[in-house]
Amino acid sequence: MKNKALFLFFFLPLIGIVVLFFILSAVNRSYIKIKVEDLVKEQLRSTAEILKTNISHYLSENYQAEEIFELYSGEENIYYMALLDSEKNILGWKSQFEGYLPLSRKTIGNKETWVIDSPAGKIYNFFSSFSAPDNKTYYVYLGYSLINLEEMMAYSRRNFIILFSVIAGIGIVFFLGIYQIQAGYIKKEKETEKEKREKERFREISAFTSGIAHEIKNPLNSLALLLELLQKKSPLELREDVTQGRTEVQKISRIIDLFSAALKPMNLQKERFVLKSLIEDIFESLRKEGLTKSVGLQYSENKEVILHADKGLMSQVFLNLLKNSLEATEMGTVRVSAKDHRKRVTITVTDSGRGMSDEEKTHIFEPFSSHKKQGMGVGLYLTKKIIEAHRGKISFESRMGQGTSFSIQL
Amino acid sequence: MKRLPLWGLTLFLFFTTLLSYGQKKEHYYNVDKEVTVKGTIKEIKMEPLYKNTAPFLIIILEENKTKSIYNVEISPVWFFDHDFHQGEHLIAKGSLYLSEENVRNIIAREVQSSGQVLLLRDKHGFPNWRGGKGQTNRKGRIKKDFL
Fold it and tell me: Are residues A42 and A135 in the same domain?
């Protein structure tokens, strides 16, 4: 499954759930809001009805409109109120806001209750007639603050936003977590599959090339023996050519040995040995081959390092690394440092040679990729293989013109 | 605007709060009776108009055409810093009502003076000095277009 498809596979249900939650919550909130508003309006209507009864009573006792309204001066939620006669002329009124009485003849004929917006919040308006004991018809106009309802709605909205954010946040984290786990699992599965295919391919190639090497090696050995005999029996003027032919045959034989070694599965014969002695022996053999020229070896260690590894294979590792370092360095020192710390040994081989280009770095451990004129590109591939067979790691750092440093962890 | 000394204003406020002003039947912002009057400021007064509130700024305005006199109720004196001057031209938009003495009164919603438009109430007559959305403590909010 592609990453995008995988992401959508996990993300779409999350979006779906969040959207569904949002819609359900919005519908629910809307329903509750309508119900609460209806309830509040019903209560206000009841209050207004009681008020009408009271006003009717006060009128029967010859109270003036202003006097009646004074009795309700403590009612903070009543923003304004007015008493009108049967002709809808105002007999008296009272407002908490100077001169504010949003009563219009265009409005009052149409309905008994309505809500208006004002800078002081929503106001529930009530306009209704009643008959006083003197049989006269009066109208009462009332403006009741809905600020408590608005505060409650604002509180509900705030809680909804907080709850929604928390749920969405948790959902995102949860789904992203699952997505990451699944993506990681699929990636690992892909890598394992790829590795498996590579191993299979390598096994097939190994079997094939081993077979070829074996088939070539036998006649090659016979050819080498024949050339040896021929060298002894040939006249002097041909002897040099025969010797060259024999050298070339030996070279082919070495190449086949290298291939075989590279393809052969590692069979470790572990033993304990002193690293310093091994390095010095290798350097000495390289010196004898004339590779050291004017380059010296500097060995350092924090304490005597004793390796538990296949000595033969490790010799090959350090031979490859030191040989590469010496070949890359015109003059100076190749430094080998070893550090034994908490059962982990780190060995670093550093030269001050020409360094590697980015292109070289990319293919450095790949087989048959050499940038040297006479190199076969098997050395570092084998080195890595040997280190990994020892459950170790090899890494390197290189800068053009400044040198290269290989680090082995065992 | 005429300014009273501080002690005078304090004394004035003290006495005005003692007075209990019954709200006159027609003395409310009646949206059905909105008028616009253009005239000249004849006099500037401060009077307590509503119970338990600060004294209001009242402008006696002489209409340009008919020379009729209007009492234009502006706002509590503390609401804005704009200065009105006698003889100045003023356009007032607001709700008209006649007092028991048959005096024309206007509860102003917007006034234009010295090139400035001062908003005093919203279209339903809600006073801007009583706060609300974006109006809190604005000193006679000024707008560009008028009437």
Answer: yes
